[in-house]
Structure formats: structure tokens, C-alpha cells
């Protein structure tokens, strides 16, 4: 029997997505560190990235969910066994309470059912594992010379062995020192009460569906399995079963079909802070699937740091700007840490943005917080598109401009 699907407007869909993503963030109850933990537990993962032209992506994503966020929170949560590093669609921080749902990937890699990008050398891997077992936590650089004859072992194989052991679950990252990974045996890192039973395919599929929809509001099969190898059959079966039991519903937005949790539709009755502006990381959970961002927010976004300079339209590291419940601008920025100045090389407004004065006011308020987050004290605004906005912003907020 075909039931007619509920239709949502784009504006309604955007509201559900943003409230599910907890954007813009608000001050919650309890300690600031616990607020960060709750953000990671809700999101399910926070992508780690090495680019540091502004504060790194994992800090940036959490700062936008928790206004009291401090970079030290992640280190504290890892030390307390509440957060760990592993792979989501990319390298990420994940909540320890969901550790067992990383086991299917680890098991598949360990048994050869899933290929990792590094070739496995069993003898080298065993040598690395034995050293860590006997010596305690080690970094990649600890393997450069110690215990190896000159010319016997190049740098690449030892890093590959560490990564393979990490991906198949024998090692975990105990901590980072100056952003360098410190590896230790999994049994020495895992808190004692953590569930380590391997989920069934049915459990795994249902977990992936429910987690995605809780975090993202609405979604499609292709989005739920994005860069998650060998998960499509389990997720497909879970979707069919959850539709039958009424745990999820099918809706339509802009002639596109989505799945949604019934309770997520109730978010339409909650307020969304449209006046508050947020400058987002390119690797924010809201944005990571660019096709989805274009379909739901009509925002065509490309991170141009991977594009040759002469082909860039918006800049090297453009930060999407969320305001009025929409993605309305993008800002190419770099923190000059010596001078403590945030260079805005180009600020581009979307053509659909008409309320430029209200947007300017909201941007000024958020920039003051964003400067502090990046340990900067002023702004150099180089260029805006349209060009007329530059004079409008600078004349209104001279205290921010250096």
C-alpha cells in the first residue's frame, strides 16, 4: 500500500536540519567540557583536519556547537576515556559510548575482507606491535632509528604498519603531542566497562540509520552510507524494517525523497535562532556532503585550497557563513598569528542575500567572538563581492578594522 508522502518546504527542511545539527550553538547547562562531550556524542563524529590557516577544523566545528569551547577539551576527554580517534568518513574524534560500532570496519580490515590503502607487511606490523607492547606508547618518530640497522627500514613502512594496526583495531591513539599521534595497545587505552561485542549486521544498519537521522534531521540512503564501505546492504535492510515498524517515515522535499524520524518533524514547532550568525568550517558536519548542501540549502560550495590558484573564484580557504537559517556568504580567511590579525582576503555575499545591513550587524557580532577564538585582535578586510559592501562594513565597524 502506497501512503502519500508528507511534503516539506525547503525552508522547513532547512530548519529541521539546522536544529538537528544544533546550529547555531547555545550555552548549555553544566561544565564547558561536558558541553563539548555532549556535542561530540550528538554529532557522532567530528572530522580532524591538519589545515591550520585558521583554528583547525575539529576545534572550529565544536566551537560552533559550544560557545564555551576550549581546545583543551578534546585532550581532557581523550584522557578521561570519553572520546577516541578513529575513522568515520575521514579521520575523526568519536564518542567512546559508540566504540563497538567501529568494530565491523576493524574486523573487515583485520580479516582481509576490506582493503586498507596501505599494503600489509605482517612481519613489520608484528615488530611494531611488539615494541609498543614492551616499551609502552610510541610515536612514529620513535621508530626512525631505534632497533633498526642503518638502511634497513625506510620511514614509509613503519608509518604504514602503525596505521594498519590502528585501522584493524590492535592499536589506539592514546593522545597527541604537538599534533603527532601517540599509539598504544587497544587494551591499555580502552576504559574497562566499554562494550566490545561485534554488532550484528542488523544492529549496525539500524545504528547507522538512526544516528544519521538524529544528527542530520533527514537523509537518503546515499547520504547515510557516504564513504562508509560495505554498509549499503545493512542500511538498506534497516531502512525497510524501520519503515515497516514506523520508526522512520518517508517525506518529500523539493521533489526529492528523504527519510526522517517522526520526532524530528516535531522540531518544526521549535524556534530557530535566525538572527545569530555562524562562520563555519569547510569540514563542518553540516557541509561535508557538498551535493546534499547544494540540494537542501541551494549553496554550491567548493573548498578551493585543492584548486590551482589561477582557477579559484572565492579563495584558498573559504568559510561558509550561516545566517537567517540559510548559507548566505563565504569568507576566505587566514589568521596572521604573529600580528594577531585575521586577514579576510575575500568576503563574497550570495546574490540571494538582500538584507545586507542586518547581515552586517550579525557578522560584526560574530567576528568579535571569532577573533578571540583565533587569538586575533583585529581584521584586515581586503576585498568584498560586491565591492560596495566593503565600504559599508568598514564605515560601520571601524573598531574591528586595522
TrEMBL record:
InterPro entries: AlkZ-like (IPR009351). This is Winged helix-turn-helix domain-containing protein. It comes from Zobellia amurskyensis.
